[in-house]
């Protein structure tokens, strides 16, 4: 049985996993996915990790196309994903609809869960938001930083602490049981990331990778992507 290797930013994990069973059954193959911060995934690809299809931000896919790691002209968008605020399900929703309200919510939280602030799209942006709010130093000791947003949300859900808040991609919030999406970041801090796939130049199974790309951007996954928080 063929194995198709997917390297992907964590925000697109729900889309891949959502079609996995049907795709594997119809194409008699196995999908092997690695999901993490986009910077880490890019580095893994550049280091030679097995890859048939890669999903990152549009800008990174374009860079990899220029460098020859992604097949020129193969880029296709899965949709845009907003960055949002999360809390444990069943706990009160803080008000986060303005600069003042967002800053207050962060100040009141006993711990703030987020993805890697140097390699993940949402984490890098979140640190910029904290800096703009003048909170970077004030809340640093309360940051709970993880390799990717999905891991951060899972850790928040499992924590016994109270008054927790998180910030990551909406898809990573929506598909983590036990946490809830409060709202997207206020308009002035909005970040909508275009997650885009590309066919890897080194693919061992390019025809099959192309079929998976069609599933991930087509009607087979549209309801899964919409449900998860993709916008298109």
Account of the 3D structure:
The chain is an alpha/beta fold and 232 residues long. It has two domains: 2-79 and 195-231, D-Maltodextrin-Binding Protein, domain 2, CATH 3.40.190; 81-189, 3-Layer(aba) Sandwich (D-Maltodextrin-Binding Protein, domain 2), CATH 3.40.190.10. Helix content is 42%, strand content 28%. It is built from ten helices and ten strands. The chain has helices at residues 13-27, 38-46, 58-67, 99-108, 121-132, 136-139, 149-158, 170-174, 206-217, 219-228; strands at 2-9, 29-36, 53-57, 76-88, 111-115, 143-146, 164-169, 179-184, 192-199, 230-231. Strands 1, 2, 3, 4, 5, 6, 7, 8, 9 and 10 form a ten-stranded mixed beta sheet that branches. Helix 1 links the parallel strand 1 and strand 2. Helix 1 (13-27) crosses helix 9 (206-217) and helix 1 (13-27) runs antiparallel to helix 10 (219-228). The longest helix is centred in the N-terminal third of the chain and has 15 residues, at 13-27. The radius of gyration is 18 Å and the shape is elongated. The two termini are 34 Å apart. The relative contact order is 0.24.
Determine the CATH superfamily of the largest domain.
Answer: Periplasmic binding protein-like II
Globally, the shape reads elongated
The domain tally reads 2
Helical amount among residues, as a percent range? 40-55%
| Sheet with the most strands, sense and barrel status | 10 strands, mixed
Order of helices and strands: EHEHEHEHEHHEHEHEEHHE
CATH architecture of the largest domain: 3-Layer(aba) Sandwich
CATH class of the largest domain: Alpha Beta
- The class by helix and strand makeup works out as alpha/beta
CATH topology of the largest domain: D-Maltodextrin-Binding Protein, domain 2
Overall average residue pLDDT: 97
Question: How many H/I helices?
Answer: 10
Radius of gyration: 18 Å
Segments where pLDDT lies below 50 for 5+ residues?
Answer: none
Number of distinct beta strands: 10
């Amino acid at each position: 049985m063929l194995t198709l290797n997917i390297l992907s930013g964590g925000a697109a994990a729900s889309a891949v996993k959502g079609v996995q069973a049907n795709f594997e059954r119809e194409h008699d193959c196995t999908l092997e996915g690695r999901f993490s911060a986009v910077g880490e995934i890019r580095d893994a690809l550049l280091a030679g990790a097995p890859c048939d299809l890669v999903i990152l931000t549009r800008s990174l896919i374009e860079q990899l196309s220029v460098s020859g790691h992604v097949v020129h002209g193969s880029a296709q968008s899965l949709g845009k994903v907003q960055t949002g605020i999360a809390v444990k399900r069943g706990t009160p929703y803080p008000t986060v609809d303005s600069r003042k309200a967002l800053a207050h919510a962060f100040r009141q939280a006993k711990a703030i869960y987020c993805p890697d602030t140097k390699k993940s799209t949402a984490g890098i942006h979140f640190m910029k938001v904290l800096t703009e709010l003048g909170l970077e130093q004030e809340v640093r000791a309360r940051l709970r930083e993880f390799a990717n947003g999905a891991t951060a949300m899972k850790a928040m859900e499992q924590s016994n602490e109270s008054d927790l808040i998180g910030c990551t991609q909406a898809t990573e919030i929506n598909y983590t049981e036990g946490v809830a999406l409060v709202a997207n970041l206020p308009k002035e801090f909005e970040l909508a990331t275009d997650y885009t796939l590309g066919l890897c130049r080194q693919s061992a199974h390019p025809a099959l990778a192309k079929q998976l790309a069609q599933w991930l951007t087509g009607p087979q996954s549209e309801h899964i992507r919409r449900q998860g928080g993709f916008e298109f």
